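Reviewers of the previous submission asked for a worked example of the structure-prediction workflow described in the proposal, so we include one complete record here. The input consisted solely of the amino acid sequence. No template or homolog information was supplied to the procedure at any stage.
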Amino acid sequence: MLTTRQPAGGRRVVYPAPVTVERPLSAGEWSVLALLCETPSHGWALAGELAREGEIGAVWSLTRPLVYRALGILEERGLIENTGAAASARGPSRTIHRPTAEGRAALARWLAAPVEHIRELRPDLLLKLVFSERSGVDTRALLDAQLAVVAGLAAGLEQQLRQASGSRALVLRYRVETANAARRFVESAKGAAG
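From that input alone, the workflow returned the following C-alpha cells.
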C-alpha cells in the first residue's frame, strides 16, 4: 500500500505504508503484566512498585511515564483490560487494569522460558525468578533449561575463542568470562531453589 503526501510548496511524494511489526515485550512491560496478574491495579500504584526503591524496581525500574506507556501497549495487545475507575483522595479517579486470560497465559509462558542471550539474564531472568517466587512457582525447571542454554553459549564462545586472534580474541575472551559468570550464577540460583 502506498500513501501520497504533498509537502507545502513541494512535489507530491509517494511513500510506502509503514510496516508494523509486533516487537517482543520489554522487561518493564512484562513487569507491569506480572504485577497486574498478582492484583488488579492502577498506573500510579504500579509506578510505586517499579520505582528504584521498590522490590521489583531493585531488579528493573520504570519511570511513571513508561509504566503508563506499558499499560497502553499491554492493552493494545489484549493482555490487559480496564475494569473501571477507583476514586482517589489526590487528584482524578484512577483507571484499574487487570490481566485478560490471554495475558495470564502469556505471562506463564514467559516465566517458564529460559532467556536466549547472556545480556538478557540481568533483566529477564532475574525478573522471572522474582515473580515466580512471589507467586509460588517452582523455578527448578526454568533454571535447568537456563543452565543448558548458558552452558551451550559458553561452549560456543570458547570454541570461537580458540580460533580467534587480535581484538576479536579480546572481545571473545570477555564474552567467555561473562558466560562463565552467568553459568555460575544460574548454578547458584538452582542450588538455592532446592
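The mean pLDDT is 90. We consider this example representative of the routine output the project will generate in years two and three.
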